[in-house]
Each structure stands twice: as structure tokens, then as C-alpha cells.
């Protein structure tokens, strides 16, 4: 069962658009994104139009892509900055959460990009369908994050809180 806590399994940056992702044991999360990442530096493919400082993806989704579709999205091929396990990323949308020494807020869903389809094939769209491509987050408070750090929700998404209350009361959760 997924909770409102999780753990960082992997961290990645890419210095420029199209360049391979670089794995890190720890990295500084600064205003605007991860130190040394293309989107913080304004050199990412979508930098001019996107406004996505940091991206997160669920490790379980990457596992499913391998098992169900034969897609190997390991070692940063997924093009996301932070791989987490144990938390439902949907609950992080509009929520504030701590990650290592930093605090972030989930802002929007992140569908797979065309560059990813070029790397692994069009079936990546099927593998990451239905909100499984990850999420974007903005930096609320900078700090260092590392592999193994806990992700903990500190201010839940108001819609999620309403669903939990309704479920406890036996009401409609939609």
C-alpha cells in the first residue's frame, strides 16, 4: 500500500537537452531546480515553455514498464530527476512535501516526452499511460537531497484530504 511517505531511490541531472542523464548519490536542490540540470540552467528542450523545475517518477511504474512492456527505463533513460518509491505521486499534486533537506510542491502531471519515445520507442506512451509519466514540482525551500532520503508530505492536497475524510465516514470519495 502506498502512503504519504516514500524514499528516494535514484537522482539524475542532465547538463543540456538530449544529453545523457547523470546519476548522483546526492545533489543540491536550488531555487529553480537541481544544480547542474538543464531545466534549472534554462537549456532543456522545454525550458522556454514549461516551467517544470524538478520531475519525479515512481520506481514501481518503471518496474511495470519493464515487466509489462519489456522497456528498460533504468539509469535515467526515463528522463526524470528523482525516482521515488512508496508514495502515490498523485497525492503530491498541490501538496507540499519534504525531501531530504528541501521542501517541494507538486504542480502538475508530466507525460512522457517525444525524446523518450525516440530513445525507447512509441510503446513508452502505453507503458506510462494514465498519469504514470511522473509529476513536476516547484522548489519551496532549497536544500540537499540524497538517495535514501525520506519523502514526507507536510501539507496534503486539499482534494486528497477530502477523499480521506469521506472514506472514513463511509461517504462517496469522488
Automatic annotation (TrEMBL):
Coiled-coil ranges from the UniProt annotation: none
Any GO molecular function: pyridoxal phosphate binding
Pfam family, one: MOSC
Annotated ranges, domain MOSC: 19-154
PANTHER family documented for this protein: METAL-SULFUR CLUSTER BIOSYNTHESIS PROTEINS YUAD-RELATED, MOSC DOMAIN-CONTAINING PROTEIN
Name of the molecule in the record: Mosc domain-containing protein
Organism the protein comes from: Haloferax elongans ATCC BAA-1513
Lineage: Archaea, Methanobacteriati, Methanobacteriota, Stenosarchaea group, Halobacteria
Amino acid at each position: 500500500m502506498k502512503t504519504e511517505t516514500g524514499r528516494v531511490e535514484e537522482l539524475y541531472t542532465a547538463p543540456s537537452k538530449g544529453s545523457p542523464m547523470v546519476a548522483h548519490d546526492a545533489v543540491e536542490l536550488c531555487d529553480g531546480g537541481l544544480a547542474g540540470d538543464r531545466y534549472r540552467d534554462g537549456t532543456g528542450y522545454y525550458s522556454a515553455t514549461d516551467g517544470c523545475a524538478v520531475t519525479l517518477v515512481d520506481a514501481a511504474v518503471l518496474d511495470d514498464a519493464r515487466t509489462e512492456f519489456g522497456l528498460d527505463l533504468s539509469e535515467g533513460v526515463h528522463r526524470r530527476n528523482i525516482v521515488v518509491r512508496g508514495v502515490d505521486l498523485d497525492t503530491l499534486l498541490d501538496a507540499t512535501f519534504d525531501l531530504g533537506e528541501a521542501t517541494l510542491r507538486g504542480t502538475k502531471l508530466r507525460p512522457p516526452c517525444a525524446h523518450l519515445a525516440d530513445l525507447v520507442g512509441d510503446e513508452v506512451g502505453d507503458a506510462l499511460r494514465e498519469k504514470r509519466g511522473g509529476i513536476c514540482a516547484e522548489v519551496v525551500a532549497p536544500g540537499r537531497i540524497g538517495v535514501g532520503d525520506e519523502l514526507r508530505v507536510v501539507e496534503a492536497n486539499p482534494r486528497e484530504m477530502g477523499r480521506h475524510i469521506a472514506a472514513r465516514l463511509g461517504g462517496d470519495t469522488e
